[in-house]
Amino acid sequence: MKKTFAIAFCLIILCSILAIPLLLKPQSTASLEGVQANPKNTPYPDLKIAPEETPQSTPQNKPQETQTTPTPSPKPTSQTAVDKLEIAINNAISCIAQTEEPNALLFLNVIYRRFGITEFNDSLQRFDKILSSSFHPILKLYRRIADHDNTVDETDFTVVTSDIDKVIVPALYSDRRSLPDDYPLVLINAKNSGSYLMTHALLATIWLQENNCNVSLPDNFMETLYHDVAALTENSFPITDLSIEAAALLYQAGQGDLVYPDFLENVIAIQNPDGSWPKSSDTPDNSWWHTTVLALNILLHVKYPAPAYPPMLA
């Protein structure tokens, strides 16, 4: 009798031990399924956050402030890309703020109105001071970049003789003067010529749009112009004033996403210690105000992305 009771007791204990894992398994499975259904473990798994807006409607390749450390770079690799961008901007502002180059001052006025850089708030006044002491007729025309009501007369336009001036001056005054009859052909030829004439064709289209002036051009003209200008930033070694101008004007046109992804890193990497940029990375000691202003323009657009900016023309 005692032996039978002992055997029964042992069977009961054994069954209990085998049943415990079976009882626990459904709860464990349910818990794992819950985590898999909401991998981010957020209280609102179906909530989707829209990407941050940039100056372009659908950016694809636009450099971000969180990009990897530029290579090559003269600065410590432990420094973040955001730090490098900000340092490059601050150095460039300090370098160019006291320039006496009148054309540079007009571009600094654009930067002041677009980004509120206070160091450039007196750029137009300084331009006027220089213009009054060493007058140049073409500068009188370009003053309209910073002053919508710039006073000119028909005789002033007789100085428009260079190929580049013929491309951009008509666009600058397209809301006040009739465009030349052959102006569409001027833009087409400038685009097809490449180099600085092509980048200035892009600048002209920016000003035409801001002046609400329509020009009859081929259907695919703007698309091919954007991509042809962007090609100047692809595998651009050495980095030159022309390739930096191409990138700067694409950002001005709201097409910064077309600039090749590595270009920003390369621009930062070739900045001189004094904050300037050379005409070409092959000649680092040959700094130029033109390249410096344009490079600063690129960096500010990347640093302060926005769906839209104030126009380039005052």
Protein model, in words:
By secondary structure, the chain is mainly α. The protein has one domain (81-303). The protein contains 12 helices and no strands. The chain has helices spanning 2-37, 81-96, 102-115, 123-133, 137-142, 163-172, 183-193, 195-210, 221-230, 241-252, 263-269, 289-303. Helix 3 runs parallel beside helix 12 and helix 8 (195-210) crosses helix 9. The protein is globular and about 55 Å long. 31% of the residues are buried. Residues 1-78 have low confidence and may be disordered.
Computed Rg: 31 Å
Number of strands: 0
Mean pLDDT: 81
Q: What class would the helix/strand composition place it in?
A: mainly alpha
Helix content: 40-55%
Summarize this structure as a short list of keywords or feature phrases.
disordered N terminus, 314 residues
Topology, pairings included?
Layout: H1 2-37, H2 81-96, H3 102-115, H4 123-133, H5 137-142, H6 163-172, H7 183-193, H8 195-210, H9 221-230, H10 241-252, H11 263-269, H12 289-303
Short summary:
With 314 residues, the protein is an all-alpha fold.
